[in-house]
Write a structure and sequence with these properties.
about 550 residues, alpha/beta, TIM Barrel, Oligo-1,6-glucosidase, domain 2, Immunoglobulin-like, 3 domains, eight-stranded parallel beta barrel, globular, binds 1-O-alpha-D-glucopyranosyl-D-fructose, binds calcium ion
Length: about 550
Amino acid sequence: MAEQRAWWKEAVIYQIYPRSFADSNGDGIGDLRGIEAHLPYLHTLGIDVIWLSPVYQSPNDDNGYDISDYRAIMTEFGTLEDFDRMLAKAHELGIRIVMDLVVNHTSDEHAWFIESKKSKDNPYRDYYIWKDGKDGKAPNNWQSCFSGSAWQLDETTGMYYLHCFSKKQPDLNWENPKVRDEVFDMMTWWCERGIDGFRMDVISMISKDPRFPDGEVTDGIYGDLNPYVCNGPHVHEYLQEMNRRVLSKFDIMTVGEAAGVTIDEAKKYANAQGSELNMVFHFEHVGMEACGRTIIGKWGYEHPQLSKFRAIMNKWQLELEGKAWGSLYLDNHDQPRAVSHFGCDDPKWRVRSAKMLATMLHMMKGTPYIYQGEEIGMTNMHFTSINDCRDLEEINAYRQYVTEHQMISAQEMLKCFDAVARDNARTPMQWDDGPQAGFTSGTPWIPVNPNYKEINTRAALADPDSVFYYYQKLIRLRHELPIIVYGTFEPLLEEDPNVYAYRRHLGGSILTVACNWTDQMQPCDVFAEGTGKELISNYDTHREGMLQPYEAIAVLQEG
Ligand code: TEU
Ligand code: CA
């Protein structure tokens, strides 16, 4: 079946984490005017869509993923007028804006929750998930994704409410049709304001197993909630209703962040009939299962192994073909920096390996996502103490595993933070080599990575061989060559421990891609002698039958 064409299949998406992107008023916090001022930079890069992490009113317990008013802009970020001006400027530049929709939970400071907790018979009580305790304890043994129990006792009514994330993020009760009405009305309000779609935060978690059973105790303290909150009994019903009542009425794109999603579930969420969402993010390739040893919980510090990573990526490329559309990403605001995690951020190999990773991802099938700073090869930060942490996921994990239960040493925990902590991706965008990397004229909410003097957009724009211009070329190739968007995927060298290679096919044309994941020369024979046109590479010269350290190359044979 010929693939149905769509703009969101042909687009390259850039994620902005507003708090760390650009500060326009010197308070050390990124804001909407700062984003507006840098839209021309993104237009130069060539991206088509911006995914904006939450900008709604929030007490910032989880940096905006705890919303207290869905129809107001966070005070530090600006006003609705600032938003409208930024949106109009983006549209003038041909850039669409996709908002982050966080409706698995709200902030505990949202008006709905303030009402809900007042009494058991309050009209808003069933907007959230309240349960009686058991034997003086929580209703079950679930651990929150941010450590500790997933249940918080509320003294007023003596009942517990569920929070899969922080205690200031109570889960909404999607079984309540009034909740669905409120969410769908709010989504319509934003679509009528002119936005171009939604990234849907943990959307796979909105339907819970009504039995709320205890989970398997994996770290000796609490039970695992994931089997009972991900891909629940009504999740597809709710999304089909959302599609009917909102999404189908607008020319917008949707991507579901689907914690715990499997290939089979993804084929439902992102089915080709378009009855739910356009695509989903899965987590298999960025989790510890691609790396090997987990130390505790989600925490570890081994780098991904090519064999495990490739098996995961190839599985998703092959299984979604013709059935559902995929997303492609290596990092975001929750993940370590791609070049540090998958490549080599040693100054000797940072640029080469960043370009290799970009080639590997952007020549695949699916919609690619670039996280702010990835296009200039920004790297992880270094944690010297818990005081360097701003993210509650790290702070809570440190308290639980180091301080309270002594299950891991402070040094081991910090080593895990160096490798995979979310704050790695949240250090300020590095614009130039001036004070605070040009991010702010004040004191940034989180320190700038000390390597900003070498790694910044001003230096990148002045260097024709920079990672920036390499990404610009990858984006341009995707816009020019349908085989990159619509070609089928064929794995190559599936057992090679060092080289990731694959082919794309469309109408007789063949695109061959090979990427050396090591800092050593490696044999590679996937290119037929002399045929085809080199589309892109991170080396100017090549060695017959070999790949140079971190070499990537893509060759097109026109059919
Ligand atoms: O993340 C959901 C999620 O699964 C996270 O727990 C993520 O996988 C983990 O932090 C990786 O270490 C979404 C948002 O992207 C995240 O920023 C929010 O903190 C979370 O939901 C709650 O809204
Ligand atoms: Ca600011």
